[in-house]
Amino acid sequence: MFYVMCIFMFGLVFGLMVVASNPSPYFGALGLVVVSGMGCGMLVGHGAPFLSLVLFLIYLGGMLVVFAYSAALAAEPYPEALGSRSVMLNAGVYLGGALIGASFFWGGWFDGLWPTADEAGELLMSRADAGGVALMYSFGGLMLILSGWVLLLTLFVVLEVCRGSSRGALRAV
Amino acid sequence: MNPFTLALLFFGLLLGTTITLTSSHWLVAWMGLEINTLAIIPLMAKQHHPRATEATTKYFLTQATAAATLLFASTTNAWLTGQWDIQLMTHPIPTTIIILALALKIGLAPLHTWLPEVLQGLDLFTGLILSTWQKLAPFSLLLQIPAANQQVLILLGLASTLVGGWGGLNQTQLRKILAYSSIAHLGWMLIILQFTPSLTLLALITYVIMTSSLFLIFNYNTTTNINSLATAWAKAPLLTSIAPLLLLSLGGLPPMTGFMPKWLILQELTKQQLPMTATIAALTALLSLYFYLRLSYAMTLTITPNNLANTTPWRLPSMKRALPITITALSTTLLLPLAPAMLALVTL
Lengths: 173, 348
Description:
Chain B: One of its GO terms (cellular component) is mitochondrial inner membrane. Chain A has 173 residues and is mainly alpha-helical. Chain A has helices spanning 2-20, 25-45, 49-73, 85-104, 130-137, 141-161; strands at residues 117-119, 125-127.
């Protein structure tokens, strides 16, 4: 179990490094896939399998896939990945920074488990991840409405920013 | 823009600031800040020329970075202390990171470089919203963080007053001048934050009123650089005659309102045994005063010799709104005698 968690954590940091080192969008999306996959594995290890499944489905299987399709539409004749010099330089700097940061916080990475059950109010006990969904619809109703409203606002913002074809210097087509 | 979209975006701006102002949980505060960033993006890009789009992109990137840093720092604080309350932050590392993230959000030196370019790409009304409304939410968070003995606050404040004064000296574009003046005033607000937060709030309120009056006057005259300011006297002579008072109020000269926060801040710094900090702040404010004086000189004190071939614009009826200018200009010049009442108003 220890080794599996180690693989997940190293994979997460490596994927983050791939994303941050500014490769072409295809490889950036690949890095994001790796990051979210490893993150989901770590969530399972900390006792939240439901949350991990939901993250896989919605984030990886919904949003990242749409992003990958959009990145595929923006075709690059010579896509750059870890083989090119500038990307390798960025990756090296971030890897060095990650190693330095890791050396600061080296002791006790597995301190403290996720509280797998929690209580709210006087008569309510809920399991951490699946019970959270029920709480979101009951106690967290205002947050749910607010989050839904923010998503609607984001939709209108994106539509307004991209409105009109090729006018406004944001779209080339 | 479609009026429904416009209404939705303005409502989003209102909602975001309100959420952050009324929150005690870091996640909710972060949500309010992100709603503000999202809602103002189309407003900034609505002129659809490349400069506006570039300004919008820069604004989005800096604000997203600041919000992400804020999120990471509050998560670190939750990890270390086990709770998410804004007013109960005790660990110095997340507190400092949050202060730096909020400094990036509002444009304090040395994290100020985005502000002049972003303001330059916007029209004056959107620039006004950016300079005034968008500062309220981050300041509400800065006021609530228990900041005891933070050298970083004084350093940010003094660097901002210095950069705000020094950087504004070489500018001819009014929006960049106003950006640097914003940086300088934010520096003054931050210097006194850890000693008397009510003075920070007072400085913020007076700055919002003073800079609104200037933005609105420049909008009325449709001027964006010093050259067009020099011929703006023909459009509204009354505005031309009161503009130096407003500019000197921003510069902090008595008997205008702008003297109030500077005077009280210097007094408080002296009481806290920090005479060197007070001296440096006062001397760097002189740099800002120079370019405010230059604007007064160009606008009012000199009139370039020219012959007017047609009717001067002030003789013709104008449909422009003057009430906001009236309110803010009067407040900018006449509120100094109300200092005790204003201080009681902002005492937290």
